[in-house]
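Q: Structure for this?
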Amino acid sequence: MTAPSLFWFRNDLRLTDNPALAAAIARGAPVIPVFIWAPEDEGDWPAGGATRWWQHHSLAELDSRLRVCGSRLTIRRGPASQIVPELARETGAQAVFWNRRYEPALTASDAQLKTDLKRLGLEVESHAANLLFEPWTIQTGGGTPFQVFTPFWRKCLAQPEPALPHPAPQALPAPAKWPTTIPLDQLELLPRIPWDSGLRQAWRPGEAGALDELQRFLKQGVADYPVERDRPDHVGTSRLSPYLHFGEIGPRQIWHAVREFARRTAPREGDTVGEPYLRQLVWREFAFHLLYHFPQTPTAPLREAFNAFPWQTNRRALQAWQRGQTGYPYIDAGMRELWHTGWMHNRVRMATASFLVKDLLISWQEGARWFWDTLVDADLANNTLGWQWTAGCGADAAPYFRVFNPVTQATKFDPEGVYVRRWVPELAKLPTKWLHQPWDAPRSVLADAGVSLGKNYPRPIVDHAEARTLALEALAQTQRDKAR
DNA sequence: TTTTGAGTTGTTCGA
DNA sequence: GTCGAACAACTCAAA
């Protein structure tokens, strides 16, 4: 009887295009798929509530998919440095397979574990699955990491095309005896008080959900993406971010599906259907590249001048922002969409982030923490890049004078107010003309719409024009201090 | 080494 | 109402 192999599932909860899993199967020995729940291994970034919810359902779906292949998922509780060697001993496994992770704490612990396992006489194989280009493979001509997106993008395009995705295995060879598993419920990933109904309505975690979403996007979204992606009131984006985060779909699958779609629908030379979307996919690559090369950035600004920025501590304002009670309907709509569905349209993420950082002068780290806890797609690399970009302290950041105007953004990207009415129902009856700035509405209009400012909807917690001036002064000061 | 061109997503003001 | 310029200066990447 051949000794089995362990396959350790992490952020690659899929059977399709899973190279380490394919390699484990190809080894010819029985394969034992394992998942280890170990929040303590995640360092300063243990999974937030929305992430835990998704994780639970994703694992359930993965287990049923594995069962179709004659296999099953073994679940254990961490830390992984202990559990993996323990499981190897228990099952008599000779080899361990996994796909690589790229977050600083995790690359370090994976490297350590690899060394430890080899010392125990085990074979260990790690594979590339979750990025198109691993962070160390893309370099400037000078051999340094990129800090500006466009040259990074061009360099990526100059690489050989990412490999074609592996097909999903039909079957996994089962061991003679399965190790014991913890029941999924015992991980207690689901909320005790049931606040997750909005999430359940909005999402179907798991590989099948991911593939359906990709098909939906190819059919209805990708061609109009350059315009439609800016409309939070439409479904114009891919909505693949949570699936990508958990690895229920791999970037290579998306890359080649989009390329193939573009070839079929626009066979002309030089046509760029799909390219704007692929560019966004490469922004994700850029985020991982930056996090890998600048591992301090989840908590520290890349531009050190910002260490001296006079961020305010204001619990009441922070809370108003978190709860969608700022008095700016577009901002509140976004924050409530986030709370309700675990996701927010990217257009609105920028506006809400800009509001926290520039209107309230609350640090981007506070915002990043809140997003981390509430997003189903919470991802250290993307979250860090996004917040530092908005705050103006990151790589390739927005110029400091770029302050989003919550009313202008709303009228531009939610022109009929569909988005705001969906998430801020207390304003639903306001005419569109006043919807995005109810404080300017005539009293009679407010009364007719049943809106009583300060009672059933707040007055603005700051005056945007004043806040903008203050922010610009503080930011200009930071620039001057640095220059000195 | 030095130089040059360029850089995701905006807003406001004044002509 | 529309449009272009100003809002800074810096740093990156490549020639």
